[in-house]
Automatic annotation (TrEMBL):
Keywords from the UniProt entry: Pyridoxal phosphate, Transferase
Protein name: O-acetylhomoserine aminocarboxypropyltransferase/cysteine synthase
Species whose genome carries this gene: Curtobacterium pusillum
Cofactors named for this entry: pyridoxal 5'-phosphate
Family: Belongs to the trans-sulfuration enzymes family.
Keyword Transferase set for record: yes
CDD domains from the UniProt entry: CGS_like
Length: 468
């Protein structure tokens, strides 16, 4: 690519591409090689010294992985990215690149339970403390939880399952007033829906296992540095980045690498030592996914809005937590940060509690019963007995995870088929299990004409499914 500004769909296909000088392969090769040959004695020495930037060993860098890193960094408008083996590895590398024993993090309570566990059970044992913000819209609460040893804010752009969209700029400004970076998990939005760096976030992490891949065939994670945080403003707070470093000839990471100081430290000192290196084959799968990201996420979001609107009309449903709906208390934030769509992971709550959720989930046929998100296939899960089973009933109630709450990750199938499948669940609740053909569905969504209209409401509904 040239320096010209391209649109998202062009960048997701071409961004970061480096021509294959040896063979001219249009799709970059998968470099399944643990190590790389040195031409001679001097080249080995120079690569170890860092004066020759060729590859040495795949834990430290691999051409296939680097290809994906360049593309994600470009899409997120960061200065550099590190590809790792999972989303959890990405969060770990980002935290360990910023924090040390004695530090404190302020995090949103609505973050992924696995990341909460990482902060509390893993980093907690290393002497890093965390406080959780109960209402992430309340910027005063973020500010109130700041302590002298606070070193980072952490939140998700679209948390699941409650869809409580983050006020990225509000939280970033609060973090910056406290002199700390905002680290954001952008997994469920993807850079197609929002680029957190453009709204003030400093570091972005992803579970690339979800929408970035889309195919559900392999895990991955990415750390992206926006290059925006000024580590030199309070050098005593970030001694690992601002102190003289023997391996850099006495310069600090900030002196040597400027706005890339964090990501170079995270790559060379944290990731390369801990070693969450992805297989180049998984990197290849991820890149294949990224090339259709905008098409999928557009379709996911349109399908999700249609499904959420359908759910909202059903008498058994007490609430639908989808920020794309006019009824959502997060609609204003969705309009501000997610003008292209509010993603496709959300929850709805059945009045009948766990028994109703069990009947519903055991009745659907097209939605897959599984714990994953952002797959091209539609997925369904009961958080109270799975992802949030380790919480007390009070903790679940505080987070709005009621016994009748069901999480959906709406896929890219034909939306009429998804609605028909969910209608089976409602029919079962109404004591009509098994009788939902097109006639049964008419009774639920109005008429076949109405169903057809729903299908037409989703642009390119058939075309995109066939293309993918
Ligand atoms: C928002 C979010 N971040 C991170 C993760 C962890 O990702 P991975 O499973 O790739 O480690 C998940 C997993 O569900 C997630 O939902």
């Amino acid at each position: 690519m040239t320096d010209e500004e391209y649109g998202f769909a062009t960048e997701q296909v071409h961004g970061g591409f480096q021509p294959d000088a040896a063979h001219g392969a249009r799709v970059p090769a998968i470099h399944m090689s643990s190590g790389f040959l040195f031409d001679d004695f001097d080249q080995a020495r120079d690569r170890f010294a860092g004066t020759d930037d060729g590859y040495t060993y795949s834990r430290l860098g691999n051409p296939t992985n680097a290809d994906v890193e360049r593309r994600v960094a470009l899409l997120e408008r960061g200065v550099e990215a590190i590809l790792v083996g999972s989303g959890q590895a990405a969060a770990t590398i980002a935290f360990l690149g910023v924090l040390q024993a004695g530090d404190h993090v302020v995090a949103a309570r609505s973050i992924y339970e696995g990341t909460k566990g990482l902060l509390v059970q893993n980093l907690g044992r290393l002497g890093i403390e965390v406080d959780f913000v109960a209402d992430q819209r309340d910027l005063d609460e973020w500010a109130r939880l700041v302590r002298p040893n606070t070193k980072a804010f952490f939140a998700e752009t679209i948390p699941n399952p409650k869809n409580d969209v983050l006020d990225i700029t509000g939280v970033a400004d609060t973090a910056h007033r406290a002199g700390v970076p905002l680290i954001v998990d952008n997994t469920l939005a993807t850079p197609y829906l929002v680029r957190p760096v453009e709204h003030g976030a400093d570091i972005v992490v992803h579970s690339a296992s979800k929408f970035l891949s889309g195919h559900g065939a392999g895990l991955g994670g990415v750390v992206v540095d926006g290059g925006t945080f000024d580590w030199s403003a309070s050098p005593e707070r970030w001694v690992h980045l601002t102190s003289p470093e023997r391996s850099l000839g006495g310069a600090s990471y900030v002196e040597r690498y400027g706005s890339r100081a964090f990501i170079v430290f995270a790559r060379d000192v944290v990731a390369s030592r801990i070693g969450p290196t992805p297989s180049p084959f998984n990197a290849f799968l991820l890149r294949q996914g990224i090339e259709t990201l905008s098409l999928r996420v557009e379709r996911h979001s349109a399908n999700a809005l249609a499904v959420a609107s359908f759910l909202e009309q059903q008498p058994e449903v007490t609430s639908v937590d989808y920020a794309g709906l006019a009824s959502s208390p997060y609609r204003d934030l969705a309009e501000r940060y997610l003008p292209r769509g509010a993603g496709s992971v959300f929850a709805f709550t059945l009045a009948g509690g766990e028994a109703a959720a069990r009947t519903f989930i055991d009745t659907v046929q097209l939605f897959s019963r599984m714990t994953h998100l952002g797959d091209v296939r539609s997925l369904i899960l009961h958080p109270a007995t799975t992802t949030h089973a380790g919480k007390t009933a009070e903790e679940r109630a505080e987070q709005g995870i009621h016994d009748g709450l069901i999480r959906l990750s709406v896929g890219i199938e034909d939306v009429a088929d998804l609605v028909r499948d969910l209608s089976r669940g409602f029919a079962a609740l109404r004591g009509a299990a098994g009788s939902v053909g097109s006639v049964g569905l008419e009774a639920r969504v109005g008429s076949v004409t109405e169903l057809a209209a729903l299908e037409h409401a989703v642009p390119g509904n058939h075309v995109i499914a066939e293309e993918l």
